[in-house]
Q: What sequence folds into this?
């Protein structure tokens, strides 16, 4: 008698126990099931067979054992048994009922007898198995077809029992087994309904006589499909993992209880917390200030967006978006995406700076930004509007600070070149060599020594747009010749290059010096002057249009309010009279400086600029004489530095007047560089 253990005391195990307990070929020593209240428990009690919770105990207690029949249907249990018992002479039979039958048939040829004796019970087993079974007798007539086989072949037992198998299943290989009398194991086959099956066919003997053949087959269509799905799932999983791991946003996932499951490298970078510190730990672990959004989401099952908090040991400012993970209506956990705010703030800051740079590069003013209704200014604006509509070069003339650059912007923006570049070049502020390469660009290798790649100049950059050449009176003779060529030929030659490059750029030139005088002194080419002066526009000085002072002041105050974060509303009447009396050698720029200074001196409660806020402006003479403190209040307010600056401004004003506004000469006279002179003029609003 073979000593047997059955593992699994469910329906299958229980039925098997009943059948086997009645044979005298096998002795069932015990049954194993991790669930002590399984279905087979009563059968075990009835047959007085012990029920064990794990098979290790059963094997140890019941040794020696010949056969273990595993009917849990759990592949893992079968694999474990095979693994642990590989050195023992114990036969392990996997869950399939069919396998048990093979074993019994092959070993003992007892099946048929048993089937005869226990027809009903055996039928129950045969019909409850997942495997399809068809048996034929020695005449190839069907003797058995179980429920599963009926389903798979769409044949009905009552129609086919007693029929020749080839008549109902033309492709059946069972007749071949009758002939060869050999077992065919695990043959792949396709049924007519496109089902993929695996079949094992065995010849059946009784008392050594061939009495028929049995085919047992399993539908593997679903397994194949599942295998495909698993493969798909695997690639999706790999893809998701790649996405999560490469994301720059920190990601953390917790389970339904709020226990950490997964984080990505960005999470560690932002919070400073590693996997060891987070995985398996409560969701609150990473929070240094604020509430856990994971916990909130798990409680409410609703997503949270844009919650601010501080995380990790560095108390990083972050914004989090958290969403629940719900699978088939069951909450499985939540996923959080954390954005580093400090990075965002840095980027916003950089963006602001970039925008500011762009603003200074583009032409920002339009004609509406030119304030003043005086006849002189209105005339200049009309001229400029007309000029804007033509392709001609424009020559803006007027004292420093009158608004020439403002006009140049407005002209560009009014013209059909407005969507292209506007480039401003101060011809006096850069050295001649630099100016040349800045204006015309250079070819690779044009500069000996350091290796530099070729570069476009401003003329090429401004192609189809406008170039504003400020302080054109300061151009060197060499540069004057080159500019004349650009205006005549509409082409430039890069420094170090030979090939001319065609360009289409409108030139808007400007100067505050007496050009005619410079021509007379042979400092400026008359041919260039005539080319530029085809469309001259004279911008009036502020002293010629004092009626614009109030409007201009109000405009400049609102601009300064924005710069200084103030809320000044206007100018008191007496202060305005003071402004009107003044001569304004530095024009609108000087007005802007004086108002800006007044606003700095004002208390936060002051809403209008009063005379006391304009200490440097008593009357026209004040600008040209040494400024002396007028009151005790002013005496304590003025520092030595400020008094020295007043003196410097006075000297600069006088020197400029003496040189009729010619900055090169003024710089020479005062023994300072032209660049330094520009810096100082700008500082004092001259
Ligand atoms: N009519 C005006 N309306 C509003 N603002 C003005 C006006 N005229 C000049 N401004 C302002 O005065 C300042 C000086 O103007 P701008 O730089 O255009 O003068 P400019 O004649 O080009 O001076 P420079 O000859 O020294 O280069 C700028 O801030 C400008 O916005």
A:
């Amino acid at each position: 008698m073979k000593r047997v253990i059955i593992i699994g005391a469910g329906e299958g195990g229980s039925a098997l126990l009943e059948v086997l307990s009645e044979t005298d070929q096998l002795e069932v020593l015990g049954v194993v099931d991790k669930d002590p209240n399984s279905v087979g428990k009563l059968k075990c009690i009835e047959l007085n067979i012990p029920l064990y919770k794990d098979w290790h105990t059963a094997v140890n207690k019941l040794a020696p054992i010949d056969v273990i029949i595993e009917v849990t249907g759990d592949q893992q249990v079968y694999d474990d048994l095979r693994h642990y018992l590989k050195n023992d002479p114990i036969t392990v039979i996997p869950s399939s009922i069919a396998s048990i039958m093979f074993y019994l048939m092959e070993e003992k040829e007892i099946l048929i007898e048993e089937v005869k004796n226990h027809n009903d019970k055996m039928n129950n087993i045969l019909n409850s198995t997942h495997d399809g079974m068809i048996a034929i007798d020695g005449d190839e007539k069907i003797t058995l077809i179980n429920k599963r086989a009926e389903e798979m072949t769409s044949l009905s037992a009552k129609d086919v029992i007693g029929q020749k198998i080839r008549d109902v299943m033309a492709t059946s290989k069972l007749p071949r087994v009758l002939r060869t009398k050999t077992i065919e194991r695990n043959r792949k086959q396709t049924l007519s309904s496109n089902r993929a099956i695996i079949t094992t066919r065995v010849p059946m003997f009784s008392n050594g006589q061939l009495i028929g053949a049995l085919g047992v087959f399993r539908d593997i269509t679903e397994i194949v499909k599942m295998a495909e799905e698993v493969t798909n799932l695997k690639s999706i999983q790999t893809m998701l993992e790649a996405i999560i791991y490469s994301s720059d946003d920190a990601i953390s996932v917790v389970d339904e209880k709020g226990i950490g499951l997964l984080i990505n490298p960005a999470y560690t970078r932002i919070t400073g917390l590693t996997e060891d510190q987070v995985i398996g730990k409560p969701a609150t672990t990473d929070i240094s200030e604020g509430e856990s959004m994971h916990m909130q989401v798990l409680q409410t099952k609703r997503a949270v967006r844009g919650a601010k908090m501080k995380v990790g040991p560095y108390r990083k400012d972050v914004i989090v978006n958290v969403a629940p993970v719900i699978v088939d209506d069951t909450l499985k956990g939540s996923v959080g995406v954390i954005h580093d705010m400090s990075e965002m703030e840095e980027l916003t800051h950089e963006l602001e700076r970039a925008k500011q740079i762009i603003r200074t590069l583009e032409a920002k003013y339009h004609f509406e930004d030119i304030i003043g209704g005086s006849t002189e200014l209105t005339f200049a604006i009309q001229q400029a509007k007309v000029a804007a509509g033509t392709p001609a070069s424009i020559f803006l003339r007027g004292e420093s600070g009158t608004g020439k650059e403002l006009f140049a912007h407005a002209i560009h923006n009014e013209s059909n070149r407005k969507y292209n570049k506007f480039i401003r070049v101060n011809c006096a502020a850069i050295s001649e060599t630099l100016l040349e390469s800045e204006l015309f660009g250079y070819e690779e290798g044009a500069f000996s020594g350091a290796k530099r790649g070729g570069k476009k100049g401003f003329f090429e950059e401004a192609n189809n747009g406008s170039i504003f050449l400020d302080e054109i009176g300061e151009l060197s003779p060499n540069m004057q010749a080159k500019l004349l060529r650009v205006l005549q030929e509409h082409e430039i030659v890069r420094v170090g290059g030979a090939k001319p490059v065609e360009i289409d750029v409108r030139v808007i030139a400007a100067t505050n010096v007496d050009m005619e005088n410079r021509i007379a002194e042979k400092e400026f080419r008359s041919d260039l002057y005539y080319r530029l002066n085809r469309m001259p526009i004279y911008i009036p000085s502020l002293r010629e249009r004092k009626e614009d002072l109030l409007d201009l002041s109000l405009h400049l105050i609102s601009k300064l309010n924005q710069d200084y974060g103030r809320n000044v509303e206007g100018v008191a009447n007496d202060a305005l009279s003071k402004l009107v009396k003044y001569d304004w050698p530095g024009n609108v720029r000087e007005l802007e400086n004086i108002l800006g200074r007044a606003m700095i001196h004002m208390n936060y409660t002051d809403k209008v600029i009063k005379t006391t806020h304009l200490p440097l402006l008593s009357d026209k003479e004040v600008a040209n004489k040494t400024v002396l403190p007028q009151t005790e209040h002013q005496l304590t307010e003025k520092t030595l530095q400020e008094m020295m600056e007043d003196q410097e401004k006075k000297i600069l004003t006088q020197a400029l007047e003496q040189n009729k506004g010619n900055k090169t000469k003024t710089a020479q006279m005062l023994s300072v560089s032209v660049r330094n002179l520009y810096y100082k003029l700008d500082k004092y609003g001259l």
Notes: The mean pLDDT is 82. The chain has five domains: 1-129, 131-238, 247-343, 362-538, 551-684. The CA atoms of residues 201 and 215 lie 4 Å apart.
